[in-house]
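Suppose you are handed a protein chain with no further information: no name, no annotation, nothing but its sequence. What can you learn? This example shows the usual starting point.
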Amino acid sequence: MIYDCVIIGAGPAGLAAAVSAKKNGLEKILVLERDTRPGGILLQCIHNGFGLHYFGEELTGPEYALRFVKQAEEAGIEIKTDTMVLEIIKGEKNHRVTAINSAEGLLNLETRSVIVSTGCRERTRGALLIPGTRPAGIFTAGSAQRFLNIDGYLPGKKVVILGSGDIGLIMARRLTLEGAEVKMVLEIMNYSAGLARNITQCLENFNIPLKTRTTIVQIHGNERVTGVTIAKVDEHRKPVPETFEYVECDTVLLSVGLIPENELLTPLGVNLDTVTSGPVVNQRMETSVPGIFACGNSVHVHDLVDFVTEESILAGKAASEYVLSGSENTLSIPVVRGNRVRYVVPQKLEVPDLAEPSTVQKEDFKACLKDGSSGKEDDTVRIMYRSTEVYKSVSVTACIGQKELKREKKRIVRPGEMQIIEIPARALKEVKDPSVPLTISIELPEDLID
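A reasonable first move is to predict its three-dimensional structure. Written in structure tokens, the prediction is:
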């Protein structure tokens, strides 16, 4: 059997994409999941705060995931768990997915489209090159979360957390509620990488200190962690010797960043973004290889699962359009980061080839963008971006060359919070030269000293 779409990963992203593809006309859909059940990382995120944007109510991680599991089941979508995908092989018409599980052995699947929703992984101690011994008691924040919330084990009693990402902040609160003493949270930057609400709810409400511009310079202990040496860092992120301080602890949690899982895409020759480490995608979440789509944290790390869902619904819809309607000749407008912008997604916009009049005659230009638009004058293309620092009272602009397409004021932008700028599709209709990039920039008032 040739599938219409094979989706890799049954987390919130993969399930939302599968349900969307089904609603938009695809019948033969298969979801592959390496874990024992669908739901993804949200199954271990037992805290609430999910679903405020998408469902309009506050849910826990398992509750949020279960809603999409039920939707997939009601839609009759086939899900294979305990199944590891080994390889994707691109073809001219159809692609092949090789997977393996204990019940069926080796699976060679043929599909018209693929959606990669494999999520992301945590950076480990090996990626940080922290000096010291190799004792027990060093965990990534995500693994500690699983030990505590799924397996019921308390990782330690006296904890130092390195990195102020959202998982680290949430685990600071969770460990405190379970009786552990969280000594401090350290952050090498001069700002927290987490959401503002998590800083308040997880640290300030529990009197847990956050030390910015501070890192761990050595881990002590033989069989078990006995303490760490911390230090302030200079403007080059180098430890300042006179600030060295020993902190007694038995556990170190690392919350130092997430990396999109893209080992399956690299052999395909998919273009990757050097900043996000995820694939370069267009506004339909299609990668540089036709028929291969990606969504969720496998593209870039999100701070809200609601955004993951919206992005994945778009990927499912686009995959169905690709299978049912095929692809058309398009030109790419590059989307690039300007001043004070760390990265942008999507990194390109596909527009009809203006050299072929028939394409423009058949469809309105805006509808050709296939971003979920219906051809109305208020249709927009959404660009997601992150700032490089914390900036206040700024203007965010979207420009092609010297032409400004959109400008909006922001009271504050933070690297830990995803930002969105919506560009009217009618503005893109005026693009004459697709080789000129669309640039997203953050502008500061002239008198601002940050």
